[in-house]
Amino acid sequence: MKVGSNLEKVLTSGYFAATGELGPPKSADPGVIRHKASLLKGYVDAVNITDNQTAIVRMSSISVGIMLLQLGLEPTIQMTCRDRNRLAIQSDLLGAAAHGVKNLLCLTGDHQRFGNHPTARGVYDLDSIQLIHMVKTMRDEKKFACGEEMDVEPRFFIGAAENPFADPFDYRPYRLAKKIAAGADFIQTQLIYNVPKFKEFMKRVCDLGLHEKCYILAGVGPIKSVGMARYMQTSVPGMDVPEEIVARLKGVPKDQVRKEGIKQCADIISEIREIPGVAGVHVMAIEWEEAVPEILELAGLLPRPKV
Amino acid sequence: MSNLSDRSTLPAEPLPPCQVACPAHTDVRGYIHAIARGDFEEAYRIAREPNPLPYICGKVCAHPCETECRRGDVDEPVAICALKRFATEQHDLSKGHAPGLTVAEPKEEKVAIVGSGPGGLTAAHDLARMGYKVTVFEAYPKVGGMMQYGIPLYRLPRETIDLETAPLKELGVEFVTNQRVTDVDALLADGYKAVFLAVGSHVGRKLRIPNADLPDVWLNTEFLRRVALGEKIDLRGRHVLVLGGGNVAIDVARTALRLGAAEVSMTCLESCTTQPAHPWEIKEAVEEGVQMFHDRTFKEIVAENGKVKGVRCVKVNFRGFLPSGAPDMDEFPETEHVLPADLVIFAIGQGPDLSFLPQDGSIAQTPRRTIQVNPVTLATTKPGVFAGGDAVTGVGFIIDAIAAGHRAARSIDAYLRGLDPASVQPPEPQKLNDLQQKTISHIRHLKREEMPMLDVDQRKFTFDEVYLGYTEAQAIRAAQRCLTCGAGARVEETKCIACLTCVRVCPYEVPLLARGTANVPVDQCQACGICATECPAKAISMKLYSDEDMIKQIRDAVRRAKYNGEPAIVGFACRYCAYAGEDANVVKASLPANVQTIDVLCTGKVDALYLLKAFEFGADGVFVAGCLEGECHNDKGNVHAAKRVAYVKGLLDELALGNARLEMFHMSPDQCANMAEVVSRLITKVKELGPSPVRRS
Amino acid sequence: MIKAQQKPIAEIKALIAPYHRILILGCGTCVTISFAGGEKEVGLLASSLRIASAMEGQDKIFAEATVQRQCEWEFIDAVAEQIQQADAVLSLACGIGVQALAERYPDKVVLPGVNTTFLGMAVEHGVLVERCRACGDCILGLTGGVCPIARCAKNLLNGPCGGSQNGKCEVNPELDCAWQLIYDRLARLGQLDRLAALMPYKDWSKDYDGGPRKIVREDLRL
User: Fold this and answer.
1) How far is CA A220 from the centre of its chain?
2) Minimum distance, in Å, between the CA of residue C65 and any CA atom of chain B
3) Residue A191: helix, strand or coil by DSSP?
4) Dist. CA A275–CA A263, nearest whole Å
5) CB–CB of A167 and C180 under 8 A?
6) Domain count, chain A
7) What is the number of CB-based contacts under 8 A between chain A and chain C?
8) Burial class (CB in 10 A: 0-12, 13-18, 19+), A115
9) Residues of C with CB below 8 A from A194's CB?
């Protein structure tokens, strides 16, 4: 046990993990957090809080993480390399750890061009793998990035993201290996809709023995509408949405689509559970947090284990 | 406009092969480019400058320039001679025969010239302009030498000779005709400070074969002279055989035809591929019905009772003449046969009549019995006496004699001023290298214009001129075939930053990169102007025009276009298409007065700056008329032009002038007649936008 | 080479608005090659500005000159007289040249007519691409000759990110993903194992982040 977070305990105990995600508001309103937290509490092992996702300014991940702790949930804060240099990152992590945050997802971050402040400078002092390495060094060697020692180190259960469908496709498992070598304890993938292709990816991951060194959680999420499915299929780089996925939603009457989307998500979870090397799922119900309990219920993942 | 034909010193840079091949080093490129531009008077001025007999040469010059023309490596040589003829025909003689040539202050010295052929006339012309008192002695009744007494009327009308000699009389040259000079020393004693012997080669030669002196065995020179002197020789029913295969033999044969001969043949040593006459003259003779019998030597003139029956010939394989003058050949006796004829005319060569030279040999002769001279100064062995032309070289071309006349004049002038005549001779020019194969592969093939000629069936019965001369449309198309060798782009190395743009845009693969700057090899450049326009450092200039010239033309055009409150429209029109097939003046006349065109040879030369300048000077609308895509003379010149037009349209929008004021038209030659209609559409749009808010005083 | 792009005419007009006699000064090196500020562009801009001036009823006077390089004192000294005669100098040089002029002629208003955009090359005539960020610590030997600082939108050293798709960058689908290029290049060179090693944190102090940089060559100083 490196850190002793709930997520870590669930995974090390051998349970199939289920994590959720919460998107902070574009405002200073804590009420939004309280509401969303109430939708997820008890249904997931930990809750990710995005960090200025798609480069749109939102309430900071760390501050929301602290609020979740106060509300009795376990947060997984996210940290990108886009907005902070190594000083700011280390400083924020010292503070987060002091407040009791234990799970951290290290990301490069979506480019600021996509967001609502496209004229801002992108920092990118570090990349995501250097960030993983830095956090691990702080935790296990009690050293700052400059090499200076600290007496009380921040201890994080370190996570990283991976997109199995990005290019170069052949390189992705090796990239995963690199992240694990740098210090990743767990991985959350991007949304999976193409299960066979994901299976292929996982086979290669297992061939490399990576599933034994690191816990791999597959990203899943319900689709609200045919339009959303089409959009993700055609306009989101790195997303692989096979035609059957879209067809299934097209095949039902319009007022049934949301329900079908939830079922579809649950079905994908069930398929993924069969794949060797997958340690859990990360459910991303974007602005639809209330769907999460239903999805997990249908997938047979409720109730969550108490560890 | 830059003066290409500044001949005060022959330029050190290499010259086009045509100019180098011309014995008078005429600026061929200059006058042809002037014709291509539509400036026919300038063409005449340039052609006339080194040549006092341009009308004559335009009709009968042997044009050694065309043999060397580099266009011949692409398709056919440029019709240089025909274009000179065109320029002379366009020249307004009321402006004088030699516009721009000066006459020096009169000098005391008298100079005598013996012979009024092209050599003598040229020397007389030059010396008279230098201020000397010149007297030309001519043995025959009329002036002109071999031009008058050797070249038949159907090639050179006598009026043309008169046209060229009249200005010499106006210059003060004294002509003494019917006066055969027999005593050169007497001339010197008579106060002539120098003498130029230009007596030509008027004595025909006969082969010493049996019966060569019978009455019906004539001599080329005598025959042609008799006809020129006006004698009406009736050859009706006669069967004429001309012995010899050269240009004079052809003149004899075709003259005989026109005098009514029933049959005319020629026979010579040479084969049909080595016959020495000009190929075009052979062709015209054969068209008229002259029969050629090649590969023969003549053994005897067969006669019966003093009447010629024919010539006994034997076939040979002739390889050329040996240094001794004897033919190098094998005879095949078993092929002996008689070519029938009742009149035989020898045309195997001619030499000068040197019987008038002093008996003491003080004017030495060569072993070939021509006058011996120093080839650089043309001085004979007698001080003060010079000689040139056919009298020195044996039979040559008119243009050779003209060059000799110039040389002699320079020498005589130096001699009379106490200078070394060798020191005043200009250095021989250097020739451009051959075109490289990859450039040749990119040059568009253009057919050589055919010289309009009198119908074959008509012309063999008259002495009317056979060649009719090019029409204006033909002349412009013919002139546009010229590659303007060596007159292309020049890179100023201090400005060039080796950006490689010229290398990338040249349609002919010409520019090279060497020692950190671009280099446009002068002998390969086709003067399309694209590199000069595209160069961002303005390091490339064109020899044939400059930005300053163009901008001045634009200013003038805008001024002229401001007419009666109508929109002032300036257009850049490509001469390769915009007027192709049409008389440029007709097309221009069809345009309203508020539309002024500036001609360019290819829109590739139209810089974006020119378009802006037109607006800067106050034009309301501007157009560029270029060829259809794929039809550009320089491959993509019109594509570059279109891109520049698009770019300037963007600027016009940024300036809030309105991009509709500028338009590019792609025209086929058929459309050019309707240019007025095409431009009217632009005028409509310009009127909608209103007058340009740019006001210049 | 330094690449630049001419400012829009509207912006230039605003810059020169208060001045009457303007010298448009071109530069014969980088901006000439970028087709932004050489002698040719000086001519085009002068003509455009004269048109603009006439349209607005002003009578601004535009002089034109181009020097070999505006980043050399000797070259800009050579146009001292023309500069003195002007109320303002509109320089079409890159930012370096503009500043050199301003430093040499501190009492003259010097205005920039181009935007210096990047260090790059022409991959084909008319197409200029960024290639170098002058980071001061070149690692091209480790990445198969493809620079991740200049050509990766996030300047990753351990890329690619998850947005690489079909060899293109998520930020601009016309841009090649630099890390795809690096991957392909290292594969050709048989150096793919380089990618397994963690590239350590970059020393940005060698880049501009360390402050404006200077090189002193004592061996060259006169």
Assistant:
1) 10
2) 12
3) strand
4) 19
5) yes
6) 1
7) 95
8) middle
9) none
Whether the Cβ atoms of residue B338 and residue B311 lie closer than 8 Å to each other: yes
Largest interatomic CA distance in chain A: 62
Question: Is the Cβ pair B655, C52 closer than 8 Å?
Answer: yes
Instruction: Pull the structure tokens for residue C171.
Output: 């930020």
The answer to whether B479 and B84 have CB atoms below 8 angstroms apart is no
In chain C the first and final C-alpha atoms are separated, in Å, by 27
Q: What are the chain C neighbours of B655 within 8 Å (beta carbons)?
A: 9, 48, 51-52, 55
Residue in C with minimal Cα distance to A146: C201
Which two three-digit tokens encode residue C26? 């071109």
Read off the tokens for B486. 């060596």
- Look up the domain containing A244 and give its range: 6-298
Give C66's contacts in chain B (Cβ within 8 Å): 538
What number is the average pLDDT over the span A263-274?
96
DSSP letter for each residue of B259-327? TT-SEEEEE-SS-TTT--S-HHHHHHHHHHT-EEE-SEEEEEEEEETTEEEEEEEEEEEEEEE-TTS-E
Kind and range of the H or E run holding C38: none
Q: Is residue A22 part of a domain?
A: yes
Distances (CA, A) of B665 to B526, B568, B624, B659: 24, 18, 6, 15
**CB C198 to CB A113 under 8 A?**
no
Residue C196 has φ and ψ, to the nearest 5°, of: -75, -30
Peptide bond between residue B358 and the one before it cis (omega within 30 degrees of 0): no
With contact defined as 3+ CB pairs under 8 Å, the chains touching B are C
Range list of H helices, B528-574? 530-534, 547-561
Mutate to test the interface with C, among A175, A189, A234 (most CBs of C within 10 A): A175
Q: Residue A239: which CATH number?
A: 3.20.20.220
Quick check: C48 and B505 CB within 8 A?
no
A247: in domain: yes
Query: pLDDT 10s per residue in chain C (222 long)?
Result: 999 999 999 999 999 999 999 999 999 999 999 999 999 999 999 999 999 999 998 999 999 999 999 999 999 999 999 999 999 999 999 999 999 999 999 999 999 999 999 999 999 999 999 999 999 999 999 999 999 999 999 999 998 988 888 899 989 889 999 999 999 999 999 999 999 999 999 999 999 888 899 999 999 988
Distance, in Å, from the CA atom of A210 to the CA atom of A186, rounded to the nearest integer, reads: 11
Which of the four pLDDT bands, split at 50, 70 and 90, describes residue B3?
A: very low
Q: Considering only CB atoms, which chain B residues are within 8 Å of C55?
A: 655-657, 693-694
Phi-psi sector, A72: left (phi>0), alpha (psi -120 to 50), beta: left
Rg of chain B (C-alpha set): 30
Please provide residue B237's backbone torsions phi and psi, each rounded to the nearest 5 degrees: 80, -10
Distances (CA, A) of B567 to A98, B591, B673, C53: 80, 13, 22, 21
- Across the interface, of B497, B609, B695, the residue whose CB is closest to C29 is B497
Tell whether omega for the bond before A303 is within 30 degrees of 0, i.e. cis. yes
Average pLDDT for chain C? 95
- Quick one: fold of C1-123? Rossmann fold (3.40.50)
A306, part of any domain: no
Question: Among partner residues C28, C33, C125, which is closest to B504 by beta-carbon distance?
Answer: C125
- Token couple for B196: 């130029």
Domain ranges of chain C: 1-123
Instruction: Name every chain C residue with its beta carbon within 8 A of the beta carbon of A166.
Output: 160-165
In a domain? residue A107: yes
C55/B657 CB distance under 8 A: yes
d(Cα B448, Cα B81) in Å, to the nearest integer?
13
The answer to whether A142 and A83 are in contact (CB under 8 A) is: no
Q: Do C170 and A128 touch (CB under 8 A)?
A: no
